[in-house]
Specification:
Chain lengths: ~160, ~700
């Protein structure tokens, strides 16, 4: 799958989101955080990391950690197939690859069509969701990239044990 | 600092000022025990904060206090004026009144204190007899003190920034040279060559200041140059007071340099310093008194056995034909060389060539490999700097601390020629300073106490650097009191860092000194306001992927060892496989590899195993277990045992297969993953896969402590 680069898309009344699916649920990521999309490639496992961090990959000489989003959301993990790909996002200088079931399309979602996240969680952890985007009849769960990849926390062996349990 | 404050709030300032001014007044209680540096910092920060909220009058009083501090340091007869000025500042601050009416009389009095004669003292100064220098009561900040000569206004605004940056870098080098010579002069060990170099350095520095229009610094260095010329000609011998004054001047110049670019290069203490030069001049013309006890002390204080003079030879040679390079260019060079290495192997070990034997190609490939390796070596060498300059800085530190504490300490440096990557040197300078200061502060006993326990009254601190298996090991050892486990444990319990019901091993107690919160409050900030404390030291060392260990013997002394990996971008490693994972073991750490028979393996009661190899036993570390690679259970006879050496420990690492020797490019683990036990980084293999670089010391250490 060819690499797609992020568009500099900020419309006057909203932003563009890259949507992808995990199971039957559709999620969206602010396109400004997405640096590229690549096909699944060999992931080197790294010891002592949380279960959802599958390891690292070599991206043109740069070593990038890869996270399985299903595992991150405590969903049942599935075997990877030919549509599985890795979305590489970058937040505050940290690059992380996200393994997702399939990538859909880039959508413009105006701000007024976005609702704040529900108070009660459903599905994945609530804290990852920055809002609910309404596109026609469907709802896309818009993710907060920074929280998703835990930019402000330090991954340390002890912590990960606690988190995984 | 205060410039960023868009919304100045005087009330907040007054509230915040209570503590510092109280502290300052408290410091000045006893003339004999004043911490001058701290007092200065307090006054200075009050001044800048006051300016930040546009309280110019308060700032001015604070400035007067600052100046008086400088004067009193040198000439104690100013002490009463200083105390009075501090009281004025206190009044101005405590009333919290920003209006001019209330502060005006205080300001007037403060100014008059500065201009007045000292109340008593052998060297009373007047407003200087030198007609070229006139001191006018300050009106506003911009021309607080000016010299009535024809100094032109500073033109720094017109100089391009990188020119100024070069000026600063060069000047710092000059100052370092001057400082080194002054310290050597102090102990009577300065060679003619050093004096000559220092004089030239001062001269060049002066010239550069002139070019840049930094007239304050130019003036000061001109005076200093004259003095240094005298020392060089051996017509004058500087007293301890001269040296201290000049060293202080160096500090002030350094501080001024730090504000450039951006600052105007003005020296606030200019008048005080010039007056200081005057008084030194007067002193020099009278026959020197019989050397008081302190100067005798000073002479004995430092004798670095690598005689400073001899070393200077080497450094002047090095100075010839060198060039300044931007470190970002070096980084870029390193990256490219790394890419080149990968690209080279992609070509020469290309799968397309599998099974074919191309003789000419092989020859060409070999040649290419030879050239790439040579290029690599140079690219790495270019970044390496001998640790000498960092060690040299310590001599000044030792002198200062000794003088303050009235102790006698000899600093012995070895391994100064050991080369370390430039970034590493920058990061460990602070930790080293703190560790040495600690050794002298807490480790080395005062002479009387040392004599009581039959120790030489001269304490010793050894500073050593050496390369060891892909790392730099820096050792700081003292022959002082040693760590008192009981005291440490009690302190730790007191601070809630340890449990009084637990039993701790000696090693564990030693480790407690690194716990955050262990340092006592009065050690938290040093003169420059930087946070110190052993936990900060450890963090700094770990920031360059290093580690710090401590060992000690009560009554004999303490030893700190810093182990820092040489920031190698390319290493020679042995590629091994464990399960589906690949590891690279640095070749330097490997002694040999063996395949074990059951008979060679001994199992201990706790389950750990030892390998018998030529009548010695080595612990076996199973990487599968260590990194929980399934299946975790594996027998020591399945696979290969790689015998590794780290420091003085040997161990065997059990791997599934040894793939072969590889030259690989080192990449740090992504920030996101932070530290992984036993892994020092990763490297990209020629087939574009990733192998983890094994931190041998870490693996062996962790495995052994787990077994314990």
């Amino acid at each position: 799958m060819a690499g797609m680069t992020a568009e500099d898309g900020v419309d006057e009344d909203g932003s563009k989101y890259l949507t992808f699916t995990i199971g039957t649920v559709c999620y969206g990521l602010d396109i400004r955080t997405v640096t590229e999309i690549i096909g699944l490639q060999g992931i080197t496992p790294v010891p002592d990391v949380p279960e959802y961090v599958r390891g690292v990959i070599n991206l043109r000489g740069k070593v990038i950690p890869v996270m399985d989003v299903r595992a991150r959301f405590h969903l049942e993990t599935q075997a990877y197939h030919d549509r599985t790909c890795i979305i590489v996002i970058e937040v505050r200088g940290a690059s992380v690859g996200l393994v997702v079931d399939a990538v859909s399309e880039v959508l413009s979602i105006p701000d007024e069509d976005i609702e704040p996240p529900p108070a009660v969680g459903f599905g994945p952890d609530n804290r990852f969701i920055s809002g609910l985007g309404k596109v026609g009849e469907e709802v896309k769960l818009l993710l907060n990239a920074g929280i998703l990849i835990d930019v402000d926390r330090h991954l340390v062996a002890n912590e990960t044990v606690a988190e995984a349990s | 600092m205060s410039e960023l404050n868009n919304d100045p709030n005087p009330q907040q300032f007054f509230a915040d000022a209570h503590e510092p001014i109280a502290r300052l007044v408290d410091l000045l209680r006893d003339q004999d025990t004043v911490d001058w540096d701290l007092a200065f910092v307090l006054a200075h920060s009050l001044k800048t904060s006051a300016r930040g909220v546009h309280l110019e009058h308060v700032a001015e009083i604070a400035h007067c206090v600052e100046l008086l501090i400088e004067r009193t340091r040198d000439q104690v007869s100013w002490f009463h004026a200083l105390v009075r000025a501090a009281a004025l500042l206190h009044s101005a601050l405590i009333h919290g009144d920003a209006s001019n009416e209330s502060t005006q009389p205080l300001v007037r009095e403060a100014r008059s204190l500065l201009a007045a004669r000292a109340s008593r003292g052998p060297l009373a100064w007047s407003t200087s007899p030198n007609p070229a220098v006139s001191v006018r009561p300050p009106v506003d900040d911009d021309d607080m003190f000016f010299i009535a000569s024809d100094s032109s206004p500073v033109v720094t605004a017109q100089l391009p920034v990188d020119f100024l940056i070069k000026f600063v870098a060069e000047s710092e080098e000059h100052l370092a040279k001057i400082e080194e010579t002054l310290v050597a002069l102090d102990s009577g060990a300065a060679t003619d060559e050093q004096l000559g170099d220092a004089f030239r350095a001062m001269h060049s520095f002066k010239g550069n200041c002139g070019i840049c229009g930094f007239t304050d610094m130019e003036q000061l260095t001109h005076r200093a140059e004259t003095l240094m010329g005298n020392y060089r000609g051996r017509t004058h011998t500087p007293s301890a007071r001269h040296i201290s004054f000049l060293l202080e001047l160096v500090d002030i110049l350094r501080a001024t340099l730090e504000t450039i670019p951006g600052g105007d290069g003005r020296v606030a203490q200019l008048a005080a310093l010039l007056a200081g030069f005057e008084s030194l001049d007067r002193e020099a013309s009278t026959p020197p008194p019989v050397a008081p006890a302190e100067t005798v002390e000073a002479v004995h204080q430092q004798q670095t056995p690598n005689n400073v003079g001899a070393k200077v030879d080497a450094s002047t040679h090095r100075g010839v034909g060198s060039i300044r390079v931007d470190t970002s260019k070096l980084d870029e060079l390193m990256n490219l060389v790394g890419e080149l290495v990968i690209a080279e192997t992609t070509v020469t070990k290309n799968p397309d060539l599998d099974g074919y034997e191309f003789e000419n190609f092989q020859k060409a490939a070999l040649n290419l490999n030879r050239l790439t390796r040579a290029l690599q070596d140079i690219a790495m060498a270019v970044r390496m700097v001998p640790i000498e300059s960092t060690f040299r800085k310590m001599t000044r530190l030792v002198r200062d601390v000794c003088t303050k504490q009235r102790k006698r300490v000899e600093l012995i440096c070895t391994g100064e020629e050991t080369e370390v990557d430039k970034t590493v040197i920058e990061t460990i300078a602070d930790p080293l300073v703190h560790l040495i200061r600690n050794s002298i502060d807490h480790g080395i006993e005062p002479p009387a106490e040392r004599a009581k326990v039959s120790k030489d009254t001269m304490g010793r601190v050894w500073l050593d650097a050496k390369h060891q298996g892909g790392e730099v090991w820096i050792t700081i050892r003292d022959d002082g009191r040693g760590l008192n486990t009981e005291k440490i444990l009690n302190k730790a319990i007191e601070r809630g860092l340890a449990d009084s019901n637990c039993r701790y091993s000696e090693r564990e107690v030693f480790e407690m000194i690194f716990a955050p919160g262990f340092s006592t409050a009065d050690q938290i900030t040093d003169i420059s306001g930087r946070g110190v404390g052993m936990d900060v030291v450890r963090r700094n060392v770990e920031a360059v992927n290093g580690r710090i260990d401590v060992s000690s013997e009560l009554g004999k002394g303490t030893t700190f060892v810093l182990r820092i990996p040489l920031t190698l971008a390319i290493i020679e490693g042995m590629l091994v496989r464990v399960g589906r994972s690949f590891y690279t073991i640095p070749l330097l750490a490997i002694r040999e590899s063996v395949k074990a028979e059951q008979a060679d393996v001994t199992t201990l009661s706790d389950g750990s195993e030892l390998l018998k190899l030529r009548r010695k036993h080595y612990p076996i570390v199973k990487l599968r277990e260590f990194h929980r690679i399934s299946p975790v259970r594996v027998s020591a006879v399945d696979g290969i045992l790689v015998v590794v050496e780290t420091g003085d420990r040997l161990a065997c690492l059990l791997v599934d297969e040894v793939v072969g020797q590889r030259q690989t490019v080192v990449k740090p683990l992504p920030e996101y993953i932070k530290r992984v036990r036993g892994v020092a980084g990763c490297s990209i293999l020629h087939n574009r896969e990733i192998s983890l670089i094994l931190d041998v010391e870490g693996v062996v250490g962790a495995a052994q402590s787990r077994a314990a």
